[in-house]
Amino acid sequence: ARARYSVRIPTEAAPRLDSIDALRGITIAGMIVVNDPGTWSAVYPPLEHAAWHGWTYTDTIFPFFLFLVGVSMALSFARRDALANPGAVFRHVAVRAAVLVGLGLVLNGLSFIVFHGERFRFAGVLQRIGLCVLLAGAVVLRGSARAAVPVAATLLLGYWALLSSGPLDPAGNLAARVDRAVLGRHTWKPDYDPEGLLSTLPAVATTLLGAAAGERLRRLGATPQAARDLFTAGTGAAVLGLLWGRVFPVNKSLWTSSYAVLTAGLAAIALAALVWVVDVRGVRRWTAPFLWLGRNAIGAFVLSTLGAMALLAVRVTGADGKSRSLWNAIYRAAFDRFADPRLGSLLFALVYLALWTAVFGILYRRRIFLKI
User: Fold this and answer.
1) For residues 241 and 251, is the Cβ–Cβ distance under 8 A?
2) Fewer CB within 10 Å, N- or C-terminus of the chain?
């Protein structure tokens, strides 16, 4: 299996839009920074999730990634001529989804073993990506990318109706009750899981909205008109999401419908800007490090997570005789030097990001991509 999914890509591979890869790389870079501060006790507010209702920069990262999964799906299916052989394409989608879910479970298992967790968690980021790939892929293959928006709207309106029938607090909402009934104790929090089962449905809608954007790009190409259309649609969606949030609060943990629409709109605006700057205007030199990460996005997420686990698992004894993780020892020795500890914590995360960016820059230059 390892040989199948770690391959050297030939130089004649189908052309890609640098704007998509760059935005994916920016998203992964943000994910590494917010996941890996020097210390969780000192983090700038935008680099933390909202406590419950509301949103921060951090809360935009995961939906941006799923939106781009949908964009890439629409373009990939067109290149593969999915209409000619939908069965073969869906088998590829199903295998990819299974690998993503499996990788997520492996990471959860390693975390459970290494850190002696109280509960094994079934859900996770990669598991949700896998489910979204499978379900959104089935919709696009069955009904074409034109079906993406109607199905997404149905999912979002249905989810709104379901959750609005009860409270929206962490323990009492319907999504949390479903997770406790199905997953039992195997959730991230005792009361709920932010990547739980029912809340995956609006996440699928996020992916489908990305597929609709990808279909627009496929039809128009990387043109000024495509950038304008994405910007217009994104602005409308962001405004709709904010207005919807007045009656159905924007909430990442619940992946509320307002949150899905708002973040998809913001992702479309960001993609429009990059299509204009990178693909239309040709200003792309600055994108290099983001392309390195964007072309190996899942690999960057998995390997950076494993690296963090290793640094946290290794114990060292400091000059004070106390045992601490290698992660904490490095932070204390090199970064905990500022009056505001949040600055040192952020610098640690940026250096950690820079190290992985260099690794994937080497892989990129050698045309090695971790295909999943």
Assistant:
1) no
2) N
pLDDT in tens, 272-307: 999 999 999 999 999 999 999 999 999 999 999 999
Closest C-alpha to 49, from 69, 70, 63, 38: 63
pLDDT at 80: 65
List Cβ neighbours of 272 (8 Å cut-off, separation of 6 or more): 226, 227, 228, 229, 230, 231, 234
Q: Which 3-state string (H, E, C) describes the chain?
A: CHHHHCEECCCCCCCCCHHHHHHHHHHHHHHHHHHCCCCCCCCCHHHCCCCCCECCHHHHHHHHHHHHHHHHHHHHHHHCCCCCCHHHHHHHHHHHHHHHHHHHHHHHHHHHHHCCCCCCCCCCHHHHHHHHHHHHHHHHHHHCHHHHHHHHHHHHHHHHHHHCCCCCCCCCCHHHHHHHHHHCCCCCCCCCCCCCCCCHHHHHHHHHHHHHHHHHHHHHCCCHHHHHHHHHHHHHHHHHHHHHCCCCCCECCCCCHHHHHHHHHHHHHHHHHHHHHHHHCCCCHHHHHHHHHHCCHHHHHHHHHHHHHHHHHCEEECCCCCEEEHHHHHHHHHHCCCCCHHHHHHHHHHHHHHHHHHHHHHHHHCCEECCC
- Residue 180 and residue 174: Cα distance in Å, rounded? 10
Give 47-101 pLDDT, tens digit per residue. 999 999 999 999 999 999 999 999 999 998 877 665 567 788 889 999 999 999 9
pTM passes above 0.85: yes
The C-alpha atoms of residue 21 and residue 271 are separated, in whole angstroms, by 10
Report the alpha-carbon distance of residue 372 to residue 363 in Å, rounded. Answer: 16
At 167-223, the pLDDT tens digits run 999 999 999 999 999 998 888 888 889 999 999 999 999 999 999 999 999 999 999
Q: What is the token pair recorded at 146?
A: 């034109």
Give the C-alpha separation, 82 to 74, whole Å.
10
Question: What was the pLDDT predicted at 319?
Answer: 74
Judged against a pLDDT cut of 80, whether residue 125 lies above it is answered with yes
| pLDDT number for residue 159 | 98
β-partners of residue 107 are none
